[in-house]
Design brief:
Number of helices: 10
Distance between the termini: 30 Å
Shape: globular
Strand content: under 5%
Number of domains: 1
Number of strands: 2
Order of helices and strands: HHHHHEEHHHHH
Largest sheet: 2 strands, antiparallel
Radius of gyration: 18 Å
Helix content: over 70%
Length: about 290
């Protein structure tokens, strides 16, 4: 059954709103769900979907960022440090997207998707094995450089009715991971929260809710830069992008309110499920391009 213009608008609006709620709770950005769903179930050109994926992830993150920053849940000092490598490599990835499609062909893109799918699912399994330890990790190996930057901070945990103090560890490794996630974000239009949340939580030992909130804000910064190469190449289709962006904004507003009250273990399982789903989709896409 074919949908008319108005029906299609509201279908895209509703689907995008649901994606926005779940994406904010997991701190993964709407693109990590939006792009695989649209590429798997619609005939729309992949570059248009990837460009719109970055656009909706950016819009949803920017809306949610205001509340997270106001409540002190996002780590502002760390965001300033991470924004430069993430944004720079996101732009590089966006510029490479057209080159990979025209020069490397399906084989090159399939190999990248397969490797990425394995990585995403491995991180999800790691988060499952860590259990509740990942919700409020303790950083005991901070170095003098980290202390001088004063990256450690605190936030009020509404679900526990107490203030959570934390420090930040392994900053150089985290910066390298931000470069990698920025590149992948721009290249595939997935957003990078699926990798950024584990990087902040498991590597830099930031509490999970603070990691998810910081990831959401950072996605809004980096994807704002990454979407420009797609726009300059004419890959943004307004009739498709407008309902998707509007839906993500509505979902992000709802999700950011829920985020302040939900317990950390629920956020952890949302992140795990989203990462497993994204990993399976990437593997399926990679195998399909090789056959």
């Amino acid at each position: 059954m074919e949908l008319g213009g108005l029906e299609l608008f509201f279908v895209l609006l509703a689907v995008s709103a649901m994606i926005g709620v779940i994406a904010v709770l997991g701190g993964v950005g709407g693109g990590v769900m939006f792009t695989p769903i649209m590429m798997g179930f619609t005939p729309i050109d992949s570059l248009v979907i990837r460009a719109t994926g970055l656009l909706v992830a950016m819009a949803g993150s920017l809306v949610a960022a205001r509340l997270f920053l106001r409540r002190g849940l996002a780590n502002m000092r760390l965001l300033i440090l991470a924004a430069i490598p993430y944004s720079g490599f996101a732009v590089i990835g966006a510029c490479l997207a057209g080159y990979v499609r025209t020069s490397a062909g399906d084989t090159g893109e399939a190999a990248i998707r397969l490797a990425l799918g394995v990585l995403v699912m491995s991180i999800a399994v790691l988060m499952v094995s860590n259990g509740r330890k990942a919700e409020y990790p303790e950083a005991a190996d901070t170095n003098p450089c980290t202390e001088k930057l004063r990256l450690g901070t605190s936030y009020y945990e509404q679900s526990l009715h107490k203030v959570i103090h934390y420090r930040v560890a392994r900053v150089p490794v985290g910066i390298l991971l931000f470069c990698f996630t920025g590149l992948i974000s721009g290249l595939f239009g997935l957003g990078a929260g699926w990798a950024m949340v584990p990087a902040l939580n498991l590597v830099m030992l930031i509490p999970l809710k603070a990691a998810a909130a910081s990831s959401t804000v950072l996605i809004g910064i980096g994807d704002t830069a990454a979407v420009w190469p797609y726009m300059m190449n004419g890959n943004i289709f307004p009739l498709f992008a407008v309902p998707c962006v509007l839906g993500l904004v509505i979902g992000a507003i709802v999700g950011s309110r829920i985020m302040l009250r939900i317990r950390a273990r629920y956020v952890r399982w949302i992140v795990i499920l989203l990462m497993l789903g994204a990993g399976v989709k990437l593997l399926v896409d990679g195998v399909g391009r090789l056959t």
